[in-house]
Design brief:
The complex is a heterodimer of chains A (about 110) and B (about 110). By secondary structure, chain A is mostly beta strands. Helices cover about 0% and strands about 60% of the residues of chain A. Chain B has about 110 residues and is mainly β. Classes of the chains: A mainly beta (about 110), B mainly beta (about 110).
Chain lengths: ~110, ~110
């Protein structure tokens, strides 16, 4: 069966510091991978998605970037965090035309 | 462009009441998929159900049931005999030929 992991679970970072969130999927090959952010007010915002290694599509221009160095690994990064980057970050995967499944999420607080 | 509307932002019920969560969608895609997810206080989005646009058969799973009406572009979710553990935010979502589009969610609070 497939599982999706995210770490860290919780992160408190000062403004201006770098960020690296990691997501890995097990039990499948060539998944589509996604990063979402959920700020206060609970709406889900799609940040990035990837259909293959090195292929990244950005939905919203911002202070963040994403990379996919391996088939089942998806990384969300920032060089300098802003207060507005605080939120709940969710990684998700699906096979083409399949159901999207979500990881446990990372709560990021930027102070 | 795709759009999903969950007009109910918050619903409060007492345990054992039935509750229906509304979802209305817009899409120009001829083939699409509809989903419901549950987000408990822990935060993880839990997949509940998926329906294909060509399958309007309603579905019942235990206390959960879903009513898909293509004529009114609605995909409503009913919880029968609600329980405290049903308290969560529920999201309706739509995927056509591109990425998944979520509604803003409905927070359901079930009190004992």
């Amino acid at each position: 069966s497939q599982t999706i992991h995210q770490w860290p679970a919780t992160l408190v970072q000062p403004v201006g510091s770098p960020l690296s969130l990691e997501c890995t999927v097990e039990g499948t090959s060539n998944p589509n991978l996604y990063w979402y952010r959920q700020a206060a007010g609970r709406g889900l915002q799609l940040l990035f998605y990837s259909v293959g290694i090195g292929q990244i599509s950005s939905e919203v221009p911002q202070n963040l970037s994403a990379s996919r160095p391996q088939d089942r690994q998806f990384i969300l990064s920032s060089k300098k965090l802003l207060l507005s980057d605080s939120g709940f970050y969710l990684c998700a995967w699906n096979l083409p035309t399949g159901t999207q499944y979500f990881g446990p999420g990372t709560r990021l607080l930027v102070l | 462009a795709q759009k999903v509307t969950q007009a109910q932002t918050e619903i409060s019920v007492v345990e054992k009441e039935d509750v229906t969560l509304d979802c209305v969608y817009e899409t120009r895609d001829t083939t699409y998929y509809l989903f419901w997810y549950k987000q408990p206080p822990s935060g993880e989005l839990v997949f509940l159900i998926r329906r294909n646009s060509f399958d309007e058969q309603n579905e019942i799973s235990g206390r959960y049931s879903w009513n898909f009406q293509k004529s009114t572009s609605s995909f409503n979710f009913t919880i029968t005999a609600s329980q405290v553990v049903d308290s969560a935010v529920y999201f309706c979502a739509l995927r056509g030929y591109s990425t998944l589009t979520f509604g803003k969610g409905t927070m359901l609070l079930v009190s004992p």
